[in-house]
Amino acid sequence: MLALSLVNVTAAFAQDDNSSAKEEGNRNVMLNAASANGPREIQIGLPSADVNVLENGLPVTYATNPHSVNTIWRGDASLSHQGLLKIAETAITTGNIGYAVNSFTQKGQKGFNGTLNYKSNHFGLQEFSLNMNGDLGKDWYYSFNMYQDFDPGTFKIKSTPYQDRTQIYKALLTKKYNGNRGEFTAMYKYANSHNVYNYATQSAPFIYVGDGSVKEYGDFKLGTTSYLPIDNEMTYSDMRTGELKQTSLYDACLNKASEVTLMNSYHFDNGLNWKATLKYDHSRGAMVYQTPMSIIDLKSAANQGVYNYRYRDIDGQTKAYNGQYIQTRMSCLNAGKIDEALFTTELSKKFSTSTFRLGVNEWFYHIDYCSNTTMYDQSVPADGSYALRVWDANLRDSYFYDFNKNASEYYKGSENKLALYFTHDWDVTNKLNLYYGARLEWQKLKGENAAVKNANGEFVGRFADYHLGAKAADGTVIAPADLSYNWLNYDFSVAATYKLTDNFGFTGDFTYIVQHPKFEAFAPATLPNVDKISVPLGRAGIYYNNSWLSLTSLFSYISKTNNNSTLNLQHGSEIKAAPLTYDIQTWGWTTDAVAHPFKGFDFHFLFTYQKPTYKKYETSITFNDGYVGKINATGNIVAEIPQILIELDPSYMITKDIKLWTSFRYFSKTYANINEAYYFNGHWETFGGLNWQATKRLALGCTVVNFLNQTGAKGSIAGAELITKDEAKGIKNQIMTGSYLRPFTVEFTASLKF
Fold first, then answer.
1. Is 69 helix (H, G, I), strand (E, B) or coil?
2. What pLDDT was estimated at residue 573?
3. Which of 35, 20, 25, 5 is nearest to 98 (CA)?
4. In sequence order, what are the beta bridge partners of 112?
5. Which of 464, 549, 611, 686 is deepest in the core (most CB within 10 A)?
6. Strands ordered across the beta sheet of 214-216
7. What H or E segment, with its residue span, contains residue 21?
């Protein structure tokens, strides 16, 4: 996911349309340099969190681990509207932090209507999206939707011909009643998705030069060469039983969902509007991680004679491995059986100078989840060939080891949120607009996990062959631990816009969110900090509008307390999980402008400066050889988040039917580990395209992703959290692994209305 900006609002006066007052402008959330098929994340100066996506007013998925948004939702022909909810609106209506993608399913209309969307790229992507809707007479309407994605990715892998194979089907039946004042819709959705890209594109080897730049390792091409072994089979130990099992990587990331949604809306004679939406979802959510850990240089003097790595050739014969590097890799097979029932109802009324809204959420989530982890070692081929799985014959006689020792997880039970909220959008005078609202939420957790304590009251932690029923070295039996919590959460927000002149004015807002940990925070070997998580966000600035320019400039502050995290710290070949709780604060300045200097030409400019820093970020852990790994990152810049972001989006209508556009996004230097030891230089991400409305019914488009063909690394460097600045000073031209930029891609689109 990409960091885009700390905060950005479109300059606007009091809005007549309440829906537009809830949404941001100038944001193409589907123009994504990290993914070919999902919405980008818009940062607000905090580390990455869930990507909030709503469909018909309800979250697409209650929790994105293990059921990610992309496996059950796409921005396809099935949607009649997509927008981006403001931070305050997201906080009040969902209790979550950040922006949210807002979408609505296409319902039936009069007559027969159809939309067929097609997308391809020069790597072989084939994506189809079809909507057909119409009326059945007597105020009955129908809508059918189909989405099919066959995406081979940007490099070939052996586990499957596709890095994304997703199919989503929707069927809607709508009845309008009582003179069209009421409308009832029933929708069924089925989704089946294998999100192979999640583990196939996580990492790659490169040479870290030492000055923030990287160069390619031998013939390995970042983004177009696979770093996965040929083998597709995985051996793991079931966290629930300890039984050794086998699966394929493709099967391990199977996501399935069967969902029923009921929607009703009614317009009363007195101007009161009522809507209610209920969704029940039964699903299997799954996500596979193939996390690279340490790289071992077998040719170094210190390692001569220490290791005895072997592999099996195509005939099954065991042979000695004579390459230079070995990469250890942790595989996390995350999966859970999910049942969720989400209900939201709202009453609203528009008065002469204001709109008032009162709503209720009743969201129930039940999950039986575990993450089975296993380790294996692989080669690091410099010739661009497929990696080989290898094993050290001095230690073992098979590929897989340390079952469930590192990041294994387990929890089972339910989470329930019952909330009452209201908003009031009020034109106090013709110069002053106020928007305010509040949310009161009761959160209840009940279930069990595997955070087990010994007789001394200390957490046992994970060990090799960990599972429910296993026995630790001190004799502690690993049994499910009960958990039960009740919390009161609350949010409130206020925003004001004052029109000093017809063109110039002041704008500001403040949002305060109080949360507690979600159920997924109880997955690791230790209990999380259950104190309240508070997030204050304040912004203030000016706006200026005229016939050709809309400009907003704001100063901002945001912080978040009691972030729960688990670091997998590495020392030598040993990995240990270190839990910690920390705070973050961010100051920023954002300027956003949309200009129309002459006919046919539009230009969007966004500049953000932000300085997100860690507070109270300290942890340590003792490894088996007695080494104490310590981290004190208090005051450091938050890893992976740039301090300067720039977006330039010019577009020009060549004719009334042909549009030429580009998008340039600059991300400044980012730190690649928590200690600020490694960093990546700033880079540009670029898009460009040509859209042609060929006929009244046919639209064609061509988009080029990364047209400057920049290559390089991003994110964090695997296994490097304990490296300090002093240690990193002498590290130059060393092989490492991490994430990378999406490669040059040419995409073609077509949309046919019929």
1. helix
2. 66
3. 5
4. 134
5. 686
6. 214-216, 204-208, 734-740, 713-717
7. helix 18-22
State whether residue 558 is helix, strand or coil.
Answer: strand
Q: Of the given ranges (306-315, 434-443, 648-657), which has the lowest mean pLDDT?
A: 306-315
Q: From 78, 84, 75, 80, select the one nearest 20 (Cα to Cα).
A: 84
Q: State the Cα angle at 101 between 96 and 107, rounded to 5°.
A: 125
The predicted-structure confidence for 150-203, as pLDDT tens digits, reads as follows 999 999 988 888 999 999 999 999 999 998 999 999 999 999 999 999 899 888
Q: Measured between alpha carbons, how far is 707 from 689 in angstroms, rounded to an integer?
A: 10
Q: Do the beta carbons of residue 26 and residue 8 sit within 8 Å? A: yes
Write the burial class of residue 332 (CB in 10 Å: 0-12 exposed, 13-18 middle, 19+ buried).
buried
Please state whether beta strands 100-105 and 52-55 pair in parallel, antiparallel, or not at all (unpaired). parallel
Give the three-state DSSP class for 253: coil
Q: Locate 73 and state its tokens.
A: 């939702």
Nearest alpha-carbon partner for 413 in 342, 462, 335, 484: 484
Of the candidates 125, 257, 286, the one whose C-alpha atom is nearest the C-alpha of residue 199 is 286
Place of tokens 């304990």: 722
91 bridge partner residues? none
The enclosing H or E element of 80 equals strand 79-85
194 and 160 Cβ atoms separated by less than 8 Å: yes
Percent of the chain at pLDDT above 90?
Answer: 66
Euclidean distance between the first and the last CA atom of the chain, given in angstroms as a whole number: 35
Burial class (CB in 10 A: 0-12, 13-18, 19+), 371: buried
Separation between Cα atoms, residue 349 and residue 449, nearest integer Å: 45
In this prediction, residue 251 carries a pLDDT of 93
Asked if 368 and 418 touch (Cβ cutoff 8 Å), the reply is no
Residue linked to tokens 């990492």: 203
CA angle 35, 41, 45 (to 5 degrees): 140
* Token pair in block for residue 474: 């001190």
Higher pLDDT pick, 566 / 458: 458
Q: Do residues 680 and 688 make contact, with C-beta atoms less than 8 angstroms apart? A: no
Q: What is the Cα–Cα distance from 522 to 513, expressed in whole angstroms?
A: 21
Q: Which residues contact 643 (CB under 8 A, 6 or more apart)?
A: 609, 610, 611, 637, 668, 669
Spatial CA neighbour of 665 closest among 40, 208, 51: 40
pLDDT reading at 41 higher than 70: no
Rounded CA-CA distance 160/584 in Å is 41
